[in-house]
Amino acid sequence: MKKTVGVIFGGRTTEHDVSIITAHIPIIQALEASGQFDPWPIYITKSGLWYCDQAMNKLEFFKNPDYPAVLAKQKPVQLSLGDGLTLSWPGLRSKSLKLDVVFPSMHGTYGEDGTLMGLLRLAGVPYVGCDLESSAIAMDKVLTKQVTEPLGIPSVPYVWFTASDWPTQRADILARITKRLQYPLFVKPVHLGSSIAITKVGSPKELENAIEVALHYDDKVIVEQSVEDLIEVTLPIMGNDELTLALVEQPVAKFFDFEEKYLKGGGKKSSGANSEYSHLPAQISDKLTARVNELGRAAYRSIGASGTARLDFLIDSKTNQVYLNEINTLPGSLYHHNWQAAGISGVDLVTKLVALAEERFRDTEAKTYTFNSEILKVVGGPKLG
After folding, report:
1. Burial group, residue 109, by CB count within 10 angstroms (0-12, 13-18, 19+)
2. pLDDT of 331 strictly over 70
3. Where do you find CATH 3.40.50.20 in the chain?
4. Are 26 and 105 in contact (CB under 8 A)?
5. Which CATH class is domain 228-365?
6. Which of 1, 58, 246, 302 gives 20 to 30 Å between its CA and that of 38?
7. Are 135 and 113 in contact (CB under 8 A)?
C-alpha cells in the first residue's frame, strides 16, 4: 500500500517561488516515480491560506499566471492536529485525508526557520529533514557561528547587529566594522537565503546603503569579511545518527545573487562531473576535501541536524584555511544533482529521506513527555473578593 505523503510548499516568504520549484523538482516527481508514495501537494499562498489539490502535482499548474485566481475559487483545506495530521475539505462533498508523512519544501521564513517543523511536531506526524531546533539555529547565520565556533569550526571575521540597534548606534556599529574587518565586505540579512539582499561592498558609502537594503528584509544583519582568494565549496549530508556524505562541490562563480542564480541560468546544475555551474567533485586537493568532510560532519552534528542539510564552506586558496559559511537545512532541489553524481538517484534520495523521517519519529515517540503529579490536588484555588 502506498504511503500518503504531504508535500508542503509556498508560504509567506521571499523564497516562495523557489519553494514551488523544489517541491516539484525533484520531490513530487521522484515520489511519483518511485511507485511507493501517493504525494499530495499542499500549497500555502503568500497571504497564508492553505490549499490542496492533486492538480498542483504538476509544475505547469504554477506556470499559469492566473493560478491564484483558480485557487481563489476553491475553499482552503482545513487541518486537524493531534493524532497525526489530517486534511479536510469542507463543503457538500466534504472529505478528509490522513497523512503518513510530511515532506516540507518551504524555504525561508515560516518554513525552513523551524516554524513548520514545530507545527508538524505538535501534530504528531513524521516529517522529512531537520527538526525545529536545528532548523532555527541554521536559519540564523549569527547563531550558527555562535554554536559552531566554540567547537573549533572556523568562521570568517564578522560583526552583527539588529534593526533596533541601527538608528541609535549607527556610528558605533560602523566603527566596530572598520576596526574589526577589512574591505571588501559582504552584508547579509541574517535569516534569508537564496542570496536575497546580499551585497558585496568595497567602501563605507556602499556599506551603509547595503545595510539599509538588508534591514528592509530582516531585523538582524551580519557583515562579514570577504575571502578574496576564494574557493567556495558545498557539501550535502544525509542521515540521523549515521551520516552519508555526498560529493564536495565547487561552484564555478564566486558569488551568485538571486537573479543570476535563478533567472539567468547560473543555477543550472548537471549530474555529470562538471557543468557551467559547478565542478563535481571540487577541484581541490585530497587534503582539503578531507578537511571539508571533517568540518561538515562536525557542523552537522553540532546543530543537531537530521534528515539532510547542505553545508557551505569558504577556502582561502593562499592559506588553505577552511571556514564554515552557513548551513542550509532545506537545500534547493535537495541538491539531487550532487547525490546522483555520488550514486544516489532522485528516487532513492526521497525514499531514504522518508525512511529517516520515520526513524526519527519512532525514536521521538519512544520518549516520555508527560508526568503525573499530585500538584492540582494540593494547590488551593484563587481567593476572590
Report:
1. buried
2. yes
3. 3-129
4. no
5. alpha beta
6. 246
7. yes
